[in-house]
Amino acid sequence: MLVNAKEMLIKARDGHYAVAQININNLEWTKAVLTTAQELGAPVILGVSEGAGKYMTGFKTVTAMVRAMDESLKITVPIALHLDHGTYDGCKKCVEAGFTSIMFDGSHFKIDENVEKTTELVRLAHDNGLSIEAEVGSIGGEEDGVVGAGEVADVAECQKIAALGIDFLAAGIGNIHGVYPSNWKGLAFDALENIHKGTNEIPLVLHGGTGIPEEMIKKAISLGVSKINVNTECQLTFAAATRKYIEDGGDQKSKGFDPRKLLNPGYEAIKLTCKEKFELFGSIGKA
Length: 287
Ligand code: 13P
Fold this sequence. Notes:
With 287 residues, this protein is an alpha/beta fold. The chain contains 12 helices and 10 strands. The protein is globular and about 60 Å long.
């Protein structure tokens, strides 16, 4: 059941768990996430970066695929189709294409420009029934060409952006896209606590979900994180399972080169990663 993400995240905040945003890249990814969510009764958010949208030949293709799959797989758990780290133009395109949720990443602008653009996009999103996420501070590392310095968000700036009527807030708290370096300092929990209290407890988003230790994930949820984004981990588990299949000679046995067979170990690996994340985030049975 395709919905916007507002209600599921308020429920998660109040119920002290987090909804997973799993980024998708193609049909196999989408099917793996949707079927796992349905099997486990978990709400889920399908994240689409602008790069992944382009790869899938455009946001309209993505919407058509997700809407059709929602119907053909008889998905009854709440799912949202969400633009990840959207530009101003990308957000407008996703509203037009029929997404149910957008993220405007104005974190690289000066705060006044971030406020101005976010204000406009909040109106556009809400007029069309979409939920909207905004960002303050920045997520370190690189995701699909979006590079961030990893600065910890300023509480006053978070308050300014939260007051614009956004539905959830991504605040940088030392989190990083991709694999964490061995000298990573960990999440800035003091900042998280202050942001949570200072923003009237708006649902908070933790980007860079790959590789954060379990205790940190649990503590972040206890301090107001209601949505956790995972992208790299599915790519790694998909690649490892595919590599193993080929190295074991799977593609050379009884038509094992058929893409439906070749891509199946990776598909199953994504399903397993989703299950592990839903378990850790506490979202199983919360649909
Ligand atoms: P990872 O790739 O580190 O899991 O981060 C995903 C993310 O934050 C998407 O916005």
